[in-house]
Amino acid sequence: MAIHKFKVLLTHPIPEQWLSTLNNDVKLIIGPDEMMGLAPELYKYLPEVDGLISFLCDRINAEIIHHAPNIRVICNFAAGIDNIDLLACTAQKIPVGITPGVLTDATADLTMGLVLAVNRQLVQAAANARSGKWKMWYASRWLGMGLSGAILGVFGMGKIGCAVAKRAHAFGMNVIYTSRTPKPEYEITLNARQVAFQELLKTSDILSLHAPLTPETNKIMDANAFKLMKPTAILINTARGAEVDTEALFSALSNRQIAAAGLDVTDPEPLPASHPLYELPNCLILPHLGSATVGARKAMAAMTCENLLAGLRGEKLPYCANTEVYV
Ligand code: DGY
Questions:
Q1: What pTM was computed for the model?
Q2: Is 240 a catalytic residue?
């Protein structure tokens, strides 16, 4: 007798072994690699699928949900949720799974990597050495600021912001932060001080973004914000690209209103290869790899599978972004 399996659309491939817990219950329809969003050839499967595994590069909007009337669960392979129309999912009583918590250290490590690389101009210096332009020991080239004693401003003191603050404290940095809720424990252990957003902008030597993307944080780093920053300041963004107004950043960097930027995320994403930001020597751009450690990605896959199986079976998702579907 044929065993009934749930049909699930996985928008882009991931290693099969990460999904092995699904083998008995799920038949996967897998979309293509190297493509943003839901590939057009996948639309025909929407009416028949029971579940969807999406990535942060997919826009899961009301139209997609409308074309998938049998869908019982959507699992985003991400901690963030800004690529999904959560209200539309909730309206259709579709629970949405996410993978919070397991990418905190990976993203905080990468943030410090960007701080070090941008501040000490590691990428440009390595290219200079590689190209044969390196002729002697330079006393006054490739200079950065000493991190010990410098001020790190953390915009959004959630899990990742706190993990970055701990690392910065270990480097001898002074931490200031903005947060919806005060973090008294970090005021004690890290000597971190909560400040208003304007003070964060004016005071930070390195300003690192860690808030989720919401209507309030969308383009929070605009031309006015850059005007308030120190000309020696560095902006780091490992949160979401749309928190920064890309054009305003380009002019702030070109006019040396701020010294440099390190971006793991951009708006749009990917940033087209022809984008002028790539031409700026004081801007380092990475392809959104904050959570790219083996451990973090396997843990994200495991949580995604747990969410998916629970949703398909009509059980509560263990990591759910819209728990209001259960009331
Ligand atoms: C997430 O999961 O939201 C991260 O941005 C992935 O790196």
A1: 0.96
A2: yes
Clarify whether 288 is annotated catalytic: yes
Three-state DSSP string of 262-326:
EECCCCCCCCCCCCHHHHCCCEEECCCCCCCCHHHHHHHHHHHHHHHHHHHCCCCCCCECCHHHH
Roughly how many angstroms between the first and final C-alpha of the chain, as a whole number? 38
Instruction: For residue 227, give both structure tokens.
Output: 């005007």
The binding-site residues of ligand 1, defined as CB within 6 angstroms of any ligand atom, are 56, 78-80, 103, 290-291
* Ligand 1 atom with the shortest distance to the CA of 106: 7
- Identify the structural domains of the chain with CATH numbers, from first to last: 6-102+294-326 (3.40.50.720), 104-285 (3.40.50.720)
Rounded Cα distance between 200 and 152, Å, is 9
Per-residue pLDDT of the chain (327 residues; tens, 9 = 90+): 667 999 999 999 999 999 999 999 999 999 999 888 899 999 999 999 999 999 999 999 999 999 999 999 999 999 999 999 999 999 999 999 999 999 999 999 999 999 999 999 999 999 999 999 999 999 999 999 999 999 999 999 999 999 999 999 999 999 999 999 889 999 889 999 999 999 999 999 999 999 999 999 999 999 999 999 999 999 999 999 999 999 999 999 999 999 999 999 999 999 999 999 999 999 999 999 999 999 999 999 999 999 999 999 999 999 999 999 998
- The dihedrals phi and psi of 179, each to the nearest 5 degrees, come to -165, 150
**Ligand 1 centroid to 280 CA: how many Å?**
26
Shortest-distance Cα residue to atom 2 of ligand 1:
78
If one residue of 75, 76, 103 were mutated to test the ligand 1 pocket, choosing by the most ligand atoms within 8 A of its CB, it would be: 103
| Shortest-distance atom of ligand 1 to CA 107 | 7
Count of alpha carbons within 13 Å of 111, Cβ hemisphere only?
30
Instruction: Give the position, in ligand 1's atom list, of the atom nearest the Cα of 76.
Output: 2
Catalytic residue, chosen from 240, 247, 279, 324, is: 240
| Inter-residue contact 238 to 107 (CB < 8 Å) | yes
